[in-house]
């Protein structure tokens, strides 16, 4: 479903050319919802988009009505909340402030806005469903089977899927029915044989001892009529741990289980709740013989349970469901969207050799394939997945490590059979198909791209085709690694949400995907994985227990919160996490600060920095750790400043002073210990110097010298290349741009020789590699689909090349300052902010600069127009000096700064 599921258009009453769109429902953990179902926070966040053709539209006030019925709302009665006319510019984060909401109720709302150009009519109504607010709302028990059956392979750790069913009767006519389900590890819900919802691999991954996400569905239409059958299939997911050979490391939760309730309201107002209990029956003897995230799924179609989720199925051979232990965590409505099949891919080629087919989708991605096949009963088709091929055309699978990445389908025979797995996914471009009866053509094997349902909110094209290609690779890499959590890679036996991979990357991703809810949920995963003493792990949820106490990985917690606040303007994100962040900062300081004020603990150094020559990586393990206290101290300093800034927003002035003081002291200690007066830091690596520069650790007097060093390393030592690993790459493009050397940043971004993003593409990458030398390094740690090396590249694309940057309140104030770089003549980018679309489209010609921009209502922008000193600037062919609404703020050399309000503008300047 579209992100604007409830968008509607209402004409503004005062200015007929203007329209209002919205409202949309917000929530603390939820910017925008796919479905207005199951919001379990007491004060959801409300927001709306204003649409208007006029320029310079600003909201001055709003009036919100929230009612318990559509009828009341239609009569303009806000019995739950009537905000009255409230003076405010806020249109994206108004917190519900009415009567306490009740579990499992639907509320209706609308908004009217007042603007400087007039007042809108009431918007059309929208609604949301309040979830289950109390633990007590779930006063029933979990069912499952705790133990192994003949259908399971206990030794290998494979379970067959668990099927549960129950027939029910609706005693009267159903007015409304809502299903609330927690099915762990993964579930599919059926009513009368129909799958409920189009989500896959649901629910979202969490540490189930901390919190369990429930999903909510409106099942009213499915429960019309008297008799119905409910069915639930359970897969392992991560509940029954994917790998159990290292119990000290991998978290295991137990056997699959489910708790569900359907709350029914009849037309006469009476209510009934249907729930899981031991009158349900279950079996493990279904067609999904085994399912495992890393290894794949085995499906024997001969074992299909025809009609198991329909009325009248003979379940006498099924067992009584048993009551089992609850997972332990809090029950929470899932506000980030589930995964979905987001796109289908057709093979670009199919070749066959020795009875096996090799399918090439032309694109590395994650998900699975859907197959159509016809043949004799018992025929076994084996699908094996890989990211690339060996020279002899066979699959290259060494880099999958222990992940078997193999699906098996056994035919039942007869008519054409269509199949796709349910409880696994793979990261791949190639599939080897063995045992397929008959000819396999492109129509019979469709690739299915699976990721968390999010809209793509950004686009970027330019006159440089390599920049465009990198953007495309990035999109595929990022999408592939959204798996309920931001995983590091989708193919090998890892797939963990490593914090360190994302500080700059997550920021850049936010320009491409509507991922606020996704990252808001991840922040909770991180917070909940914190130990009582303050320690934060490198991987969260901590499916792997990696509490290594370094700065760089856990530090991402603060950096992603900062990013979310900047992009969405929601201060509640900071307030929610502030105590945990502070605790961690104190913990690190207490344990790891030495007498000289240096944070001595670091685990990974500048992880995966490129070996000086491509050959050096050959045959060697890539994951050499080079712990470096300079990195940990620089990060601690940066995070002290971030915390001080958070205090500004949260109003904690005492803490703020302490963080600021500590930062001043640490800066001195850092310089004393690591600065070499000849102008560099530590061992004079690019990353060390960049951190000191970007974090503002360097003294003003030394800045120029340091800048000289940075440039010398790139230009002379590296012959125009970067030499940064995971840490340095997160900041490098912004550092160079701030230094006034966006030309050098551009050089790095458009290189095709090693090490560079272009080099990856020249060597066949269709996503982003884990390693700069991914084509020669050892396969042990060499994923071809990681996002970490994107660093801050996409931030630079949108903020510096296109010039779309938020200055306050999640783009309510925008700074538009594109960098003009020799060789780059054109950029066109769009970004869908919470206020509406922001576009920047510029073309540089010999002596002119043309720039079309648009910013949405209720926002303002400061533009930096490149223009020859003293030359005239036109907007829509009119000199801007003749336009009283165009405010010139300053003229500084070849840049003219102008303030504008919402609307579309066409500027032309002389260069
Ligand atoms: C690897 C992953 C991940 C990285 C860690 C330290 O296993 O590639 O991206 O963060 O190591």
Automatic annotation (TrEMBL):
Residues 172-342 form the Bacterial alpha-L-rhamnosidase N-terminal domain. It holds the Pfam family Ig_Rha78A_N. It catalyses: Hydrolysis of terminal non-reducing alpha-L-rhamnose residues in alpha-L-rhamnosides. Residues 352-451 form the Alpha-L-rhamnosidase concanavalin-like domain. GO terms for biological process: carbohydrate metabolic process. The keyword Hydrolase applies. Its EC number is 3.2.1.40. It is an enzyme of class 3 (hydrolase). One of its GO terms (molecular function) is alpha-L-rhamnosidase activity. Residues 803-877 form the Alpha-L-rhamnosidase C-terminal domain. Residues 456-801 form the Alpha-L-rhamnosidase six-hairpin glycosidase domain. SUPFAM superfamilies: Six-hairpin glycosidases. Keywords: Hydrolase. PANTHER family: ALPHA-RHAMNOSIDASE (EUROFUNG), ALPHA-RHAMNOSIDASE (EUROFUNG)-RELATED. This is alpha-L-rhamnosidase. It comes from Sphingobacterium allocomposti.
